[in-house]
């Protein structure tokens, strides 16, 4: 492989990382808003948030991307830059998955904590901000870590729409070199390295947050056990259907 | 925004073809992932690290890299090595392999959730190793993991559109073909979007019913 081709691959990595960061930010915002809305007092808010989750989780991320690229422009007269179209589609889809994580973590906080907030006459917003979220967020991190890796894998879908991400530059190099084993091995390895770095970062974040609420950050193996239970949904109460 | 019901009814025959291919890919992919995942899970329990270590590394690698790139890899590299399969076969194998690395964790959790007393009872009854697995451990473990496996079938359904990238004409492939021929994107894409929501919603209802029956 020549330097020129490597430059192409690096450009692809940069696009993938940008798209990952933007859509992760959007997905986090969506998952907190929708997840909190699903624990709201009013049934109509709960219903709308639940409807959003069912719709966006029910459809495929790739179909969503096609929809944003091809149906939004003629239907509403918006022509989004590919980067924003990709961010929108991925952020909304993965945000719907994230909202389930947020809801689950909020529900798993000891009810006595909420009642304590009521007894101290906190407003609902104060209860959420000062009592529920600080305890719930560290519990969300292992699941969000898995979701982030899924999102990284999902960013490769935009290459089908011709956006120059890592998978797309892999295809270009294949066409240039007329052989595929080498370049696809490199592309897979680069994705794996990014995923590995993300996992490490999230684990560090989890430790910091847990220390912040006075919980034992736990040993490495204990964390992995926990993560496994949450990934597989076996042995946890109310795994539910995804 | 204009909506053309004529385009919908023109697209429907293609839609049914696509749905059939999607469901085929889903069924075969599930079978492969269930079988292969069990193999990985059992290999990971062998006492020798010379098996566990490579299996662990490979499955971790497959799990953390995009299915799309794996599809490209199998679709373009295998012919270079002299193995030629149809696009659908390649896609089914890729999906099955990718999801086997998830189902493997499910099986592992299920096997670990079998109470230690069951192992001890099997030892006390002097059951051979093979029979311990087939008659005592696996029946209990698999019963426990069926809901979790079902969730992965639903995820798999939502990943089948990727097969379009390797020229398989499943639902999304049919929709794209139709849109490019008739320059109508809105109707076919919306139809398949709604179809995905409906199918996965029905599947999750089915799964919940199954879960209620199994978990008692």
Automatic annotation (TrEMBL), chain A:
Residues 13-202 form the ABC transmembrane type-1 domain. PROSITE patterns: ABC_TM1. The chain crosses the membrane at residues 12-37, 49-70, 183-201. It is a multi-pass membrane protein. GO terms for molecular function: transmembrane transporter activity. Residues 211-230 have a biased composition (Basic and acidic residues). Residues 211-242 are annotated as: Disordered. GO terms for cellular component: ATP-binding cassette (ABC) transporter complex. One of its GO terms (biological process) is amino acid transport. Pfam families: BPD_transp_1 (PF00528). It is found in: Cell membrane. Keywords: Amino-acid transport, Cell membrane, Membrane, Transmembrane, Transmembrane helix, Transport. Belongs to the binding-protein-dependent transport system permease family. This is Ectoine/hydroxyectoine ABC transporter permease subunit EhuC. It comes from Streptomyces spiralis. The lineage of its organism: Bacteria, Bacillati, Actinomycetota, Actinomycetes, Kitasatosporales.
UniProtKB/TrEMBL annotation, chain B:
This is Ectoine/hydroxyectoine ABC transporter permease subunit EhuD. Keywords: Amino-acid transport, Cell membrane, Membrane, Transmembrane, Transmembrane helix, Transport. It is a multi-pass membrane protein. GO terms for biological process: amino acid transport. It comes from Streptomyces spiralis. One of its GO terms (cellular component) is ATP-binding cassette (ABC) transporter complex. Its main location: membrane. It is found in: Cell membrane. Pfam families: BPD_transp_1. The chain crosses the membrane at residues 20-43, 81-99, 189-210. Residues 19-207 form the ABC transmembrane type-1 domain. NCBIfam families: ectoine_ehuD, HEQRo_perm_3TM. GO terms for molecular function: transmembrane transporter activity. It comes from the Bacteria. InterPro entries: AA_ABC_transptr_permease_3TM, ArtM/GltK/GlnP/TcyL/YhdX-like, Ectoine_EhuD, MetI-like, MetI-like_sf. Belongs to the binding-protein-dependent transport system permease family. Gene3D superfamilies: MetI-like. PANTHER family: L-CYSTINE TRANSPORT SYSTEM PERMEASE PROTEIN TCYL, MEMBRANE COMPONENT OF AMINO ACID ABC TRANSPORTER.
């Amino acid at each position: 492989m020549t330097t020129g081709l490597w430059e192409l691959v690096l450009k692809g990595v940069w696009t993938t990382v940008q798209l990952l960061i933007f859509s992760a930010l959007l997905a986090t915002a969506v998952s907190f808003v929708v997840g909190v809305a699903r624990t709201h007092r009013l049934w109509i808010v709960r219903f709308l948030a639940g409807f959003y989750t069912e719709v966006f989780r029910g459809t495929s991320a790739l179909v969503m991307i096609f929809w944003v690229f091809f149906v939004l422009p003629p239907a509403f007269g918006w022509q989004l830059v590919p980067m924003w179209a990709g961010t929108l589609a991925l952020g909304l889809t993965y945000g719907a998955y994230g909202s389930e994580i947020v809801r689950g973590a909020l529900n798993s906080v000891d009810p006595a904590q909420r009642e304590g907030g009521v007894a101290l006459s906190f407003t609902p917003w104060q209860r959420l901000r000062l009592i529920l979220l600080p305890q719930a967020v560290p519990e969300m991190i292992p699941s969000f870590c898995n979701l982030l890796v899924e999102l990284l894998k999902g960013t490769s879908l935009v290459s089908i729409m011709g956006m120059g991400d890592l998978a797309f530059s892999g295809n270009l190099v294949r066409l240039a070199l007329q052989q595929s084993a080498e370049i696809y091995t490199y592309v897979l390895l680069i994705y794996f390295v990014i995923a590995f770095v993300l996992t490490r970062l999230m684990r560090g974040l989890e430790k910091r947050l847990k220390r912040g609420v006075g919980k034992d950050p736990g040993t490495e193996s204990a964390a992995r056990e926990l993560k496994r239970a949450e990934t597989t949904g076996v042995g946890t109460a109310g795994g539910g259907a995804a | 925004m204009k909506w053309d019901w004529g385009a919908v009814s023109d697209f429907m025959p293609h839609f049914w073809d696509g749905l059939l291919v999607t469901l085929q890919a889903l069924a075969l992919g599930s079978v492969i992932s269930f079988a292969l995942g069990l193999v990985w899970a059992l290999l990971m329990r062998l006492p020798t690290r010379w098996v566990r270590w490579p299996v662990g590394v490979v499955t971790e690698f497959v799990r953390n890299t995009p299915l799309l790139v794996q599809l490209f890899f199998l679709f373009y590299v295998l012919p270079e090595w002299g193995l030629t399969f149809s696009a659908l076969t390649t896609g089914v194998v890729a999906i099955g392999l990718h999801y086997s690395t998830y189902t493997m964790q499910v099986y592992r959790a299920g096997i670990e959730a079998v109470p230690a007393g069951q192992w001890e009872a099997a030892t006390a009854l002097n059951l051979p190793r093979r029979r311990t697995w087939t008659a005592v451990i696996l029946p209990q473990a698999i019963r426990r993991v069926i809901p979790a496996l079902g969730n992965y079938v639903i995820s798999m359904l939502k990943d089948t559109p990727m097969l379009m990238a390797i020229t398989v004409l499943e639902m999304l492939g049919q929709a794209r073909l139709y849109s490019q021929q008739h320059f109508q994107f809105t109707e076919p894409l919306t139809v398949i979007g709604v179809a995905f929501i409906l199918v996965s919603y029905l599947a999750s209802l089915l799964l919940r019913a199954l879960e209620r029956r199994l978990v008692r």
